[in-house]
Amino acid sequence: MSKQAKLEAILDVCSFLQTGPVLKKNFSQMLLSNDLTMDEIEQITGALLIDIKENMVYLTDKGKEWMCHLGYLFGRNPLSDLLEFYRREKEHRIVSDACGFIMSFIERLPQLDSFWICSPWIVISAERRPRFKKCLEKVNRIQIITRPPKSTTPDKFRKSVEDSLTWLYKQGIEKISLHESVHAKVYLLEESVNSWRNRVLVLGSENLTFSDNPELSLCIYDDRLFRDARARLASLITPTTFKSY
Question: Less CB within 10 Å around the terminal CB: N or C of the chain?
C-alpha cells in the first residue's frame, strides 16, 4: 500500500471515530478492514491520534486535527472546514476568576450536556443566584461533590454553605455527593460527547464561593485530561448525598 493510500486509510479510521467513542472490538475490525494497525498509525503520523480507555476507543485532539488536514488535502472537505477548525481552537489559559469564567462559558452555549463541580465549600450569595440559575437551566446533567456542611470551617460559613446546598437542591440538583475530606477544586464543562472544542477542565485554588480572594485557575482544553479528571471525580462520589444528610 502506498503512503498516500495509508494516509487515506488513516482518514477513514479517524472518520469512523468522529461521531464519538466506539467499542474496542468494533475499532479492531475497522483497522483490519483498512489493513492498518495502531502501531502503524503512530509510526506514519508520529502522533497519538487514537486513545484507548478501558474498552472504548477515542479520537484525540491531535487525531481530529489530522482528520481536518487530511480531509482537506484529499479533497473530502472544503478549505472552510479547515479554517473553522482553527477558528474554534482554544488555548489553555490562566484565569483569576474561575466562577466568572464558568458562567461566561455556559452563557455562550445554547446548552451544556454535563457540569461537574468539585468544591469543598459552596456558597452562592442571593445576588449571584439569578445569573447562576440561568446557567444551571442550560445543563442536562449536574454532579456536585462537596463536604458536608458540618465539616465547614470556620463555623461562621456553615449556615451559608448549608443554605447554598439547599438552594441548589431546590433547583432540581439531586446529585450532591458529600465527601468528608475532599480538597480538590475542579470543574468540568462539556457541551456534548462529540463537541470536543467545547469541553473544558478548570482546576486551581478557587472554591465555588464567588469570593474576592486572590485566586488562580488553569483552563485546559484536552480530551484525555478531561476524561482522566472525570474518572477521578467519579471515584470520589460517596453514597451520602445532601438529600440524605
Answer: N
Q: How many CB atoms lie within 10 A of CB 49?
A: 23
- Position 64, amino acid: K
Q: Three-state DSSP class for 212?
A: coil
Q: Find cell 471515530 and name the residue.
A: 17
Task: Examine the domain organization and report whether 106 and 162 are in the same domain.
Answer: yes
What's CA 77's distance to the chain center, in Å? 27
Is residue 210 a contact partner of residue 136, using CB atoms and an 8 Å limit? Answer: no
Residues in Cβ contact with 234 at an 8 Å cutoff, skipping those fewer than 6 apart: none
* Cβ pair 199, 223 in contact under 8 A: yes
pLDDT digits (tens, 9 = 90+) for 72-114: 888 988 888 877 776 665 678 899 999 999 999 898 877 889 9
Number of H helices, E strands in the chain: 9, 10
| CATH number, domain containing residue 136 | 3.30.870.10
